[in-house]
Amino acid sequence: MRDGDPMARLLHYLELPPVWLALFAGLAWLQASVFPLAFLGRAGDVAGGLALVFGLALSGWAALRVVLAGTSLIPRERPDRLVVEGPYRLSRNPIYLADAAILLGLILIWDAVPSLILVPVFLKLIEWRFILREEALIRDAFGSEYDAYCARVRRWI
To answer: Could you tell me which PANTHER family the record lists for this protein (predicted)?
Structure first.
């Protein structure tokens, strides 16, 4: 497909982490619908709710730090600033970590225990599809400053 092709543009914008999160959540929901389990009960609802709230709060906090720094939230765009404040002091990828917490929370709420395997698969896919490319862009933009940050802060937690 050519760059000016509307379908190519649509796919370019659909190839974003929230779309992958929705796809994985949809798989977990489908598993819970087709093979329902009454395993976790109220404990799953509570744990899932806490994970969901944590993920949403972390995502909002991290996104706010990026916006306040005046740089882009879009994974394939070269950042204007290196964000190291707020949740970025603890994780180089707090938004993706938040996405994993949201997925975990939904899986627990839906009692989709077999779908728990989707959480590490989701993290690996996000690393492969987005993080490695983002790290190269950031390293290219900030060089030794980014290398020093990587030495201080782990990719996940």
So the answer is: PROTEIN-S ISOPRENYLCYSTEINE O-METHYLTRANSFERASE (PTHR12714), SLR1182 PROTEIN (PTHR12714:SF24)
- What whole-number distance in Å separates Cα of residue 10 and Cα of residue 14? 6
Of 87, 61, 72, 88, give the one whose Cα is nearest residue 134. 72
pLDDT tens for 70-122 read 999 988 888 999 999 999 999 999 999 999 999 999 999 999 999 999 999 99
pTM over 0.85, yes/no: yes
Three-class secondary structure of residue 74 per DSSP: coil
Nearest to 68 by CA among 90, 88, 52: 88
Q: Please, are residues 118 and 59 in contact by the beta-carbon 8 Å criterion?
A: no
**CA distance linking residue 49 with residue 102, whole number of Å:** 9
Residue 70 to residues 8, 64, 82, 100, 132: CA-CA distances in angstroms?
Answer: 28, 10, 10, 25, 22
**Long-range residue pairs from 84-89, CB within 8 A, at least 24 positions apart, any chain:** 84/149, 84/153, 86/61, 86/62, 87/58, 87/61, 87/62, 88/62, 88/153, 89/153
